[in-house]
Give the backbone structure.
Amino acid sequence: MTTLRRELAYFLGAIRFFTRLPVPAWVGHSTEALDASARYFPAVGLIVGALAALVYLAARQFWPLPLAVLLSMAATIYATGAFHEDGLSDATDGLGGGWDKLRILAIMKDSRVGSYGVVALWLGLTAKFAALVAFAPAHAPWALIAGHAVSRYASTVLLATMIYVREDQESKAKPLATKLSGGGLAVATAFAALGLLPLLCLFPWPGALAGCLAAALATLWLAAKFRRWLGGYTGDCLGAVQQVAEIAFYLGLLAAWPG
């Protein structure tokens, strides 16, 4: 297999792992391929963000702004199967209800949703909706694309800097448990930067910087909690970081250029 075809397979494997979007039948399945696919996490964010932007723009032709935002959010949830929202809920339940590492991990693995998880989901979705409604209609599509790419890059940073702490073979992030290499992180960085490029071209650069800084602070805060209570990350932790970093990114953008 040529290098280009192999990288394409890794990219399509990332789409299959992180979303419900269809991929060609020739894309194989292996632990090695799934390990390598982590470098394309922000690239998947570009696709999901672009889908959200297209739904937003289409909906704006027929319905008011709040409905356009709501439909764009629904499109991303459908495309990803609420993969990251589920992680946010489980991680919050675990950290909120557990008192040591084993108990926290057990709560995270439980398929039932607790009160902490419900509150986290409500706050997360409400904050995202409120932030996106606050953007000017011309700004929102670009914010969506950048937000989905940058927030997935935030999760990728955990893959490169922290260790995976679950030992069971059936956990959702087990295929990504190999620590991301420096080269893989560089690829992820390039795709995250690509998501930011339209913002840097169309709007003052402090806005993009403020968004990235807010996402970075949110990531560092969660990473410190995961390191303190778990000694590393789980798949649920990655989902939680993606959701919180996305919201923080929007808040940073709004702080720098509101409306």
